[in-house]
Amino acid sequence: MPETDLKQQLVERFQEVNGDHPMTDADDVYVSTQFVVLEELCAVLGREADEVRRLMLGRCLPLPGYLRSDGAEMVPADLFALADEAGGVDLLEAWFTAHWADPATGKAEWDAYLSGQYVCLHSVTPATIQRKDHLTAAIGAAADELDAGSARCSERLHALVDELDVLEPAFTDYDRLRFGGPTSRDTCIDAMRARFPRT
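The structure assignment produced for this chain is given below.
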């Protein structure tokens, strides 16, 4: 299949998952600092871009995190790291899902990983996904405690927020469009720091 056809198929799949939202100049600048162009990454690593697109379309590797306004498929620099750790693309799904005790949860996380929408983490691994889930739940619980305004609770809350801050990038306005609202950074980091300022 010609590369142009694979690129078009990937655009269509990306839009099925994310919707068709415009990328602004600011979005493009953000994405270009956080991600790399698929063809450039493949050239550096000696991989064929069209084969990687086939793997993405075949649900063996995640979709690009973003499509820049010039059409560039933007992927994380460590796109192949998990497959390498698993022992190859063919072993990746079983390796990935095995990190969750509940098979249904593992399958749901695998589907989320393949969507390419884990742009909420600097490094997407089962461990960081699980840690983010833990932190966002713990932040919500800490904020809802009756003593949420106490020094002890505030200290605990800020420690959780600070840890999540290290895991998550800044996001961009495009993310708020495709996710249909605020990001986890908006709700669990920025809003919490505004609601419970450090004293």
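Interim note for the steering committee: Strands lie at 36-37, 66-67, 73-75. Residues 126-144 form the longest helix (19 residues).
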